[in-house]
Write a structure and sequence with these properties.
This protein is of the alpha/beta class. It has helices spanning about 10-25, 35-45, 65-70, 85-100, 110-115, 115-130, 165-170, 185-190, 215-225, 280-285, 310-315, 335-340, 355-360; strands at about 5-10, 30-35, 50-55, 80-85, 105, 175-180, 205-210, 230, 245, 250-255, 265-270, 295-300, 320-325, 345-350. A hairpin with a 5-residue loop joins strand 10 and strand 11. Helix 2 packs parallel to helix 3.
Length: about 375
């Protein structure tokens, strides 16, 4: 039986493109379409769909407002956001993921791109991935993204330490956390990073498969919610204890040991690997020559197997501890499954336990 998809977008042209893509797939069909969040809410109050494709910017009620109403009324829906590549839409999309959207797909910039095969492949791949998960709970039942200790966050954003202090802090580090995630990852990171303590005694690097622009918005939002400091990584910046660095969309990220024993981030625009840039394998492979005595590898929800090759190679060169998200809490049990099947995973835990498992491995200052 074909899966029923509900398309919500104010652009008649974009609805037509999306509907044509979905109806061309033998396993999917568009069961309904509408042009604003208000009409979509009325529909979702009485009808069920396997998946909802939701535009960000719409008249009457936008995508964010619709998600808020779904939360308020405890209406179950598996929602994929369809977002344009603007700074405002990136910010709104990240907020939408906090409100229960599973993940997002970026819209093509013009009609020619929309009719190309690439957008269709990305859209169908995302739908297929999320439909493998039984998400019978309403949007409001998703875990809170705010940690219980959020009130102790700094009252103001501190000035970044001087370059000298950065180097001294980094050179003393013996442990690094390296995390990889993909489909469902932005939401998962909101259930992990805000629960890390501000006195975490090591740095953390993250590869999340996202387009350029979205990683910066995600980093800024996570920084607002978290005790640790979170930022989009910059080329040649030192790694500092208690800071989290997210690889920019469209850039590979490596960790490079310096002559004085400290470590800095190196970004590059080398070709995508397996269609991925950033690629987690690149990050993990760079750690083989690092000066860290222990590396805690964390693999969260995502399609494919990115990270498995890199972590496997790293395990032969370094002392590692590997944490994988369990199948029941993954949007897509691909990347965690791949690393678990290698036999080098120390802990397989539900998403809610990832942060405390990390803390047990690295401790606090």
């Amino acid at each position: 039986m074909k899966k029923n998809i509900f398309v919500v977008d104010d652009s008649a042209l974009m609805r037509r493109v999306i509907c044509d893509i979905i109806n061309a797939d033998s396993n999917l069909q568009v069961a309904k379409e509408c042009r604003n969040g208000k009409d979509a809410l009325e529909t979702l109050r009485t009808e069920k769909f396997d998946c909802v494709l939701l535009d960000v910017n719409m008249p009457v009620m936008d995508g964010l407002q619709l998600l808020q109403m779904l939360q308020k009324e405890h209406i179950a829906a598996t929602v994929i956001m369809v977002s344009t590549l603007t700074l405002r839409d990136a910010d709104v999309t990240i907020r939408a993921l906090e409100l229960g959207a599973v993940d997002f797909v970026t819209k093509p910039e013009n009609l020619m791109d929309a009719k190309s095969g690439e957008f269709g492949r990305r859209l169908i791949s995302m739908i297929d991935a999320v439909l493998r998960l039984d998400r019978s709970k309403p949007v409001s039942a998703q875990p809170s993204v705010r940690p219980m200790v959020i009130g102790t966050k700094h009252e103001f954003k501190p000035v970044a330490p001087s370059a000298k202090n950065l180097t001294q802090t980094a050179s003393k580090a013996s442990t690094l956390i390296a995390l990889a995630s993909s489909t469902g990852g932005p939401n998962a990171l909101h259930q992990v990073i805000p629960f890390l303590p501000k006195d975490m005694k090591c740095p953390m690097v993250i590869v999340q498969h996202m387009p350029a622009g979205f990683t910066k918005s995600m980093a800024e939002r996570l920084d607002e919610l978290s005790q640790v400091h979170v930022k989009e990584a910059e080329d040649n910046e030192p790694l500092v204890n208690g800071w989290v660095y997210i690889a920019p969309g469209g850039k590979h990220m490596r960790v490079v040991k310096q002559a004085d024993g400290s470590h800095r981030i190196a970004l590059s625009s080398e070709p995508a690997i397996g269609g991925l840039r950033p690629c987690a394998d690149v990050m993990y492979e760079s750690l083989e020559s690092s000066g860290y005595s222990q590396i805690v590898c964390v693999v969260l929800t995502g399609m494919g197997s990115d990270g498995t090759k890199g972590i496997t190679g790293l395990s032969k060169k370094k002392r590692i501890q590997t944490i994988a998200q369990n199948a029941d809490t993954c949007v897509v049990y691909g990347m965690p499954r791949a690393i678990a099947e290698t036999g080098i995973v120390n802990d397989v835990v539900p998403l809610d336990d990832v942060a405390k498992t990390i803390i047990k491995k690295v401790g606090v200052s």
